[in-house]
Structure formats: structure tokens, C-alpha cells
Amino acid sequence: MTVTAPTRPQLEPTAAPHAVTGRRATRARKLMAGAFLAPTVIGITLFTLVPIVASILLAFFRWDIISSPKFVGVDNFVEMGTDPTVRVAFLNTIGFVIVAVTLQLAVALGLAVFVQSKMPSWLRTFFRSALFFPLILSAASVSLVMAYLFNQDFGLVNAALALIGLPAVPWLTSPGGAMVVVILVYVWQNFGFSFLLFVGGLASIPKDVYEASSIDGVTGWRQFRNITLPLVSPTLLVASVMAIISALQIFDQPYVLTRGGPGDSTRTAVMVIFESAFQQLQFGRASAIGIVLTLLIMGVTALQFRLSRRFVFYQ
Amino acid sequence: MADISRRALLGLLGAGALGVAASGKRLTARDIPGRNTDALNIAILGTAQDAEARQNLVRAFNARHPDIPVRVQAIQGADWSNFFAKILTLVAAGTPPDVCVVATEGAQLFADRLAHPLDEFVRRDKAEIQDYFDDVHPSLLEAFMYQGSLYQLPMDFNAANVYYNTAALNRAGLERPKTDWTQHDFVDYARAMRKGATGDFRSFFWTNRLWGGVVPWLYINDTSFLAESKATGGDWFWQTFYAKDPSSASRSGGYQWLEPNAEDPKVAETFEYLRALVAEGLASSPAQGGGNELVARFAQGKIGMTPAGGFWVQGLNEGGMAEDDFDVSFFPRWRSQRHQFGAAGYTIMRTSERKDEAWEWIKFCASKEAMALAMPDPNTTPTRRSMVNEAFYSGKGPKHWQVFYDTLDRFPTTGPIPAPPQQAAVETALIKNVLGAITGPAAGVPRALGTMQRDLDIALRRKS
């Protein structure tokens, strides 16, 4: 009896009758891959990498677009350090990030927990859509509308306060009020993204963990603190990294609402970059500030990942 | 469905792309405004509709100069500094316009770096252009002199006047303000207007900006936030074109703003006056913003008085206000009664290779025929005195439209808003410190002005 090895079932044709084979085929595939990747690679090179390199170089020059760039060494960085406006703008940005991101994550997580609680599915869908909706609006147009709402003399917010006998608040014309409005508008518009992340994160927590804890008599706040929060911590890390990176680049809301005022009270780092480059034609200075802001973002993100080792729990 | 090989698919896609590329009218690099074209490229601040609206002007120009094709390029900008930044980007990109509309805000920036002086052209065509100068107030020309040379022929201007709502005035039992009313009278008017009003009414509404913000108040108090001086030179111009004007001897080679002046006691006095108005609820706290919102509120009768120029007439008319629903007066008198204005005109870019054609465009636009075509409605004030007439304001008001040009004629010291070549940084320094001075307690005014002085000093010293 002759034993023959079973032939492997042929799942796919090994080659089309006219297909090229071997090294030629590999080269053709590489060429094809290259052709499809080329537009993206060219786009990233031209519109991301080249500007990054140009910006780093420009930071060491004084350039107003019209005249030839003049090499000034680290002067732009030194001037930046001694400019009170830049200093205040960075402090404002950091203060804004601390308050706005904390508020944004707290609101998003709170609402995500609420939406994940027992409620009809249509109501859950409604909340998910409604709470995400502000994110799809243009920040500039939202800020324009908010500027009307918070107008001291004619705004609806003060009109509502007047109805209950409260005095008009100088929302956008006092340093404290202006920053409060900027934070509120920013958080209202941006918490939707963190909210969606948290909804996903909460959904991934196994139900049996809650059931077991309920049997042990752990409910309410203790359940949230000891079960929900640790198990949602990986999502919290992602949400906080993204929220901080985004908040450090805050521009639209203060630019439209207050133009950085009153004084410098709502001026942010990106606003100073914009004003330096496109209003005062100091592209070197703008690049230097941009580099410092980038380093700040990178530093904060690295710190977050470092700290996450202590506070993030994976199942 | 028949199978198709990858090669065949790519072939088809390529053929399709070639077909699309070859068929019909398409955009190419030549369609980028100003690139590879023989047309005289004129940049204006506005939308494509604004450019379209100028086509009758272009047609009239081409009827006289059929050999000079013209392309009007509209560049949108939130404000003048935004527009200037975009022009500079065009310069950097190697596609600058030949001619550019420039307002007072950018006049010295352009004169300093980008514009070509008109001296040779106005001298050469004196006979043709004299008619324009005879009709235009010399203050407007002096605003476009820079270090002894002339850079623009202003086509329109707007001085800051006080618009008032006649219903609010009548409700308060007030007469029209006298020409020489004082800053104290102004407070009395504001109080009387508020007394007779209901709801969210503000006697005086103003915005925090360079034109029409704090500057008119500083000017009437004989001061400014920058120290104003005059450049030497310019005699050639005044002796040639304004020889018969009695003020020509005191005219100069242009304004200069070289030093900050925010700590002048008169500046502090002016800010304290405005702070007190706001604190008493007579004036709004000046927020950032443009004029559209203000027009709507004024038309709704929510505002008693506000600073505005001739550009407001058309807007109020479109907002539903009849001729006698509003009127206009001069700013009050304080230590002086000097007023402020801003103007705009065309400038020739240094980089232009069509300077002669550009001058023909400017010369044409300065003619009465062209200015009538360019300004059919009272949404600005023509610089030609003869055009600011009954017919121009007919049916739209205000009753005392003469105020617009009289701001120049009756007050010869009336001058342009402070706009040195570093205007963008200076404007930022001014605007950002106004609220701090206005909204706090009286004790906070000197501190806010000290910060303004520091910021202005940095702005004026800073090199690009």
C-alpha cells in the first residue's frame, strides 16, 4: 500500500495565470504600495515636516517676511523670557489647562456614568448625541454666540440674572469673569469627546464585578471610587492626555470672546504666537514661542505617562 | 460582473484623469490672482461680491484706458491688520498686487516697507490732478505723507462723530447738542437719556478699538496715548497743491508717533472720565467687537449715543431707521475740540512693474466720475467735499450730514488715528489695557496706564 501525503487544501489560487512571480512580483507590490503611500508621505513632508524644520530654524532668525532673515542666535528666546506678555500668556495657559481639563474630565465622567445607568435605550441615545453635539460646531461660531449671551449690557445671561434680582456681571470685561467664560465655553464645547471615551471605557467594565461588589454590600460612591474609577483609569489616562494637549493649544475661544483681554488676563500662548507672526510680523519670535510650547506639551505628556504607572490599573 | 485586472484598472483611471484634465475649462496655476497675468492687479479688502461691485469702475477705467487690463482681487480680513498680514503673505509668496487699498491704520507700515511714493506722478500730472486737491481737505493728505513724501490719494474717510437716537433725545426732553458742547454737557445728556429710558438701554455705547474707542476722548482733551510730532519736508507738496490754503504753512511731511504717552496726566484724566461714566452706568463697558452688532442695537433704540462716522448712514437705513430717527453731532469740547479720522486710498507697491499703469488707476479713481461710481451709497464719506452733499444723503439722513465734512473744515487740527509702522503691536497694547483702566476703581487707572506705557514702549522699540 502506498501512503501518500495528504495534499494541503488549496484555499486560494497560488497565482493568476498571467501574474508575475518571485522577485519581480515583490518589486511590483512595493512599487504599488509606494504609489499609494506617496500622496500621504509627500503631504506630511511638505506640510508637516518641512514647516517643523523651518520653524526650528526660524526661531534663530529675525524675519518679517519682506526683508531677508537675519541670524540673531538665541535672542528670540532671551526676549521671550523677558517679555511680560509672553510670561503671562504661558501662566494663563497653564492655569487654564489645570482648571478646564479637571472640569472637562469630571463633567465627562460624571455624565458618562449617568448615561450608562439604567434608562431606556432611546434616552441613552439621545443623551449621547446631545452631549457630543457641541464638539462638531465651529469653535469660532460658538464663541461668537457666547459673546452675545455673556454681553454685560445686552446679554441673555445678565437678563436672566436681572429676572431674579441679581446685578449685571461684567462677564467679558473683568479679568476673573472673562477667564470663567472662556473656561465654561471651552469645557461645554469639548467635554463630548472625553464623554464618548468614558462611555466606551465604562461599557468595557465587566458587569460581574459590579454584581460581586453589590453582593458584598458596596454600592454608590464606594463602588465608583473602588471599582469604576480604577477600572476606567486607562481611559482616564488617554482622555486626560488628549484633553491636556488640546487645552494647551487653546486659541479660538479667547481670541473671539475677549481677544486676550481685559489686559492680558485671557491671553494664551498660541494667541501670542498668532499675534507675533501674523499681526506683528515677527516670525522668528513666533517660532521660538512655538518651540517652547511644543516642548511644554511634550514634557507634560511624558510626565503623565510616567505618573500613570502609579495610577492606572489594567485588568 | 466581469473581472478587471489591476493593471487595466490603473490604465482606466489614468485615461480618465487625462480625459478630465484635457476637457473643458479648468483651474490652473495661471488662475491664481496676480500670477502670470498682464493685468494690473488691485487688492481690496472685501469679498468676491465687493470685487464684483467694482466692475463698473473697472469698465469706466477701461473705457478711458483700453490698453490697461485690470483685475480686482478681493482679500477678506476681519480687520485692517488682518488684511495687511495677507498682503504681506502675497509679497512673500512672490505674487504681490500692483495696487493695494490701504487705510490710515497701515499707511505708515506700507510707506515704510512696501509702497512707492507718488511724488513724481503728482508733480508730473499736476494740471490733471489739481482738481482733486482743490476738492479734498489737506488734513486727509497730510495723513498720507510719510517723511516728506506722499504715498496715497485718500478716496474716503470717516471722522468720529456722535450719533444720537432722536427718540432717546426727545424722550429726555433734550435739544440737539450745540456744536461746542462740553464733556460736562455730555454727562448731563447721558444722565437725562438714562432717566427717561426703560429696559436694557445704554446712554453711550462704545467699542474698544483704535478708531472710535478711547482716541476721540483723548483728542478732545488735547492729548493722545502716543506723543505726536510732525516730520520735516513736504513743502514741495503744500506749496504746489495747497498754496492758497491758509493752513498749508503749518502742514508737514507727515505725522510721527515715536514715543509712548500713556502716563501723561491728561490721558489719566480722560480715562478717569470714561471710568466714571462706566461706573455710573451711563456708558457700556467697552467690549471688543465690530460695528454690525452696534448698528442693530442702535436701530432698536437700545443705545442713546455712540461714536461713528459717515459709514453708518447706509447701515442704519438698512436697519430700518428713517432719516429723522437719528442725527449726528460733533464730539464735545474739552481742552480742545480736535477730532480723529481714518481714511483709505490706493497705494502703489514698490514691487510693481506697472507703476505707470497703477498711477493711471489711482488718478482715475480720484476723479469725481470714478468716486461717484465707487461710492453710490453713504456707507462711507467721500474725500471730495463736493460729493458730500444733499443728494448723497437724500432719503437716508441724517439731517445734519454736513457734520461729516465740517469735522475737517471747522476743526483744522483734526487728525488721523495714531498709526506708526508698528501699528499692529501698538493697537494691541492700547486695546488690551483700556479695559483694565476703565473697569476697575479710580485708584487702578494709573497702574493700568503704567502697564500701557510699558507695552507701548516695547511695541515701538521692537524690531521685526
Word description of this protein:
- The complex is a heterodimer of chains A (about 325) and B (about 475).
- The radius of gyration of chain A is 27 Å and the shape is globular.
- Chain A is built from 13 helices and two strands.
- By secondary structure, chain A is an all-alpha fold.
- The mean pLDDT of chain A is about 90.
- With about 475 residues, chain B is α/β, with parallel strands linked by helices.
- Chain B has two domains: about 5-160 and about 340-395, Periplasmic binding protein-like II (D-Maltodextrin-Binding Protein, domain 2, 3-Layer(aba) Sandwich); about 160-225 and about 260-340 and about 420-464, D-Maltodextrin-Binding Protein, domain 2, CATH 3.40.190.
- Chain B contains 21 helices and 16 strands.
- In chain B, the strands form four sheets. In chain B, strands 1, 2, 3, 4, 7, 14, 15 and 16 form an eight-stranded mixed β-sheet that branches.
- The longest helix of chain B has 18 residues, at about 445-460.
- The N and C termini of chain B lie far apart (about 65 Å).
- Classes of the chains: A mainly alpha (about 325), B alpha/beta (about 475).
- The interface of A and B includes residues 32, 83, 173, 260 and 281 of A.
